Amino acid sequence: MEPDILELESFLPYRLYRLADIVSREFSRIYKERHGLTRPEWRTLSGLGQHGTMTATELGEQSAMHKTKVSRAVAELERRRWLTRTPNENDRRVEHLALTKAGLAAYREMVPLAKAFERELLARLSADERVALVKGVTALEGALEEKG
């Protein structure tokens, strides 16, 4: 291979991106079929389901989504009456987002499906491969957090 050519198929950042995208698309079929959700809407629903009340900024940081994607997802979930917005008393530019009963019900319906998807995905690997994957991902996350 020439030194000035980047072979994407063996370049780790490219491989990680592709893998994450494939897994995300495969999982998205479940929540799209069940509730007609987009990826940003699912990430918003699951973030609020896990953490309770959050701001749009917090959701964006937690889910690594751009603020416009968060904004559209919030608007759609609000249109479905799956979340509510409550203005911050000290700063009217900030809204606290929370799931409604209907949003929480949809989230609770999806949790076992998400866990089953993860189990089935990991079942494709041997026990040693699962341990190595978790250790490797954890180590890489830790190494990148130290730099950030």
Verbal overview:
The chain has 148 residues and is mostly helical. Helix content is 68%, strand content 7%. The chain has helices spanning 12-35, 39-51, 56-63, 67-79, 101-122, 127-147; strands at 83-87, 95-99. A two-stranded antiparallel ribbon has the order 1-2. Helix 3 crosses helix 4. The chain is globular.
Tell me the layout of helices and strands.
Layout lengths: L11 H24 L3 H13 L4 H8 L3 H13 L3 E5 L7 E5 L1 H22 L4 H21 L1
Antiparallel strand pairs: 1-2
List keywords for this structure.
148 residues; mainly alpha; two-stranded antiparallel ribbon; 2 strands; 7% strand; globular
Q: Using the CA coordinates, give the radius of gyration.
A: 18 Å
Helix content: 55-70%
What profile does the largest beta sheet have? 2 strands, antiparallel
Assign the structural class, choosing from mainly alpha, mainly beta, alpha/beta, alpha+beta, or little secondary structure.
Answer: mainly alpha
Helix count equals 6
Mean pLDDT: 94
> Unreliable segments (pLDDT under 50, ≥5 consecutive)?
none
- The rounded distance between the terminal residues' Cα atoms is 32 Å
What fraction of the residues are assigned to beta strands by DSSP? 5-15%
Gross morphology: globular
Q: Give the SSE string.
A: HHHHEEHH
Widest beta sheet: strand line-up: 1-2
Question: Could you give a quick summary of the protein structure above?
Answer:
With 148 residues, the protein is mainly alpha-helical. Helix content is 68%, strand content 7%.
